């Protein structure tokens, strides 16, 4: 049985709690975050969630060993069955009609798209991720935003067409979000416990962060876009789905992942970090359950907990209860309820056939 990588679980736990902040954090009447630093939870946790999904695909389809032959076919089936379960759970959560834009249906569709790349070496997948970061947002902008002639090729908006929403017009368009999963697939093929890999990952993350957010802001001030299309191409604000925002989000995710991996693997910090950050790791280990449960609870409490916050008290309760319940559940039960369901109804780990010697 493959040992869990604690740093990955911690990063996933941070992503889940970051989405709690995005959905339940208090805002001022003029739409600003309170406290202001909650802005870090805008767009970035969901992007990290998608990157870690791609990383998980790499881990359960062979890790550093590229799948070939029967193992490759098995990997495709495993991805497909998981995508179906995630999609169904996403539809059920969407049916609750909360103010939360449920990421799971798009997440499932992107899962299927990434399946085509699981046999590629990490360098090739990294190139594909960079290509997707440029091509996907550019194509989205060209299709949805008016240029100099004042018209856009695709006139449909959010909610007009469910399939089009998943691929192009929704909150998490697969044409853009495949970048995150491809990056995760690339990273998941590496030796995540290696200090050298962690250092390169951190340096790459810092570079992408500066190029993405900084480059977009600088170009916007220099170019001063005059059309919606040009403005869209240079945006860096959360959920812009532009190349610059995507690169910045990737940078943040890689930097966070590098830090938590280092903290939990380096001899000087591993023991203390694993103890102190265990509640986050437990939350990350049952991320599907924690994410789904928070949407169900929002539905039970009413949409006011999202739209009409008077303080961060509700958010604090969500975070504390989630950390405590997940810690106790993983300690005394093991896998989360939805993680158990996933294991029960989807294709399991690949087991190579044992060759029998001839007598």
TrEMBL record:
Residues 230-348 form the DUF418 domain. The chain crosses the membrane at residues 7-26, 46-63, 75-96, 102-120, 127-148, 168-187, 199-219, 246-268, 280-302, 314-334. Keywords: Membrane, Transmembrane, Transmembrane helix. It holds the Pfam family DUF418. It comes from the Bacteria. Residues 4-194 form the Heparan-alpha-glucosaminide N-acetyltransferase catalytic domain. The keyword Nucleus does not apply. This is DUF418 domain-containing protein. It comes from Georgenia wutianyii.
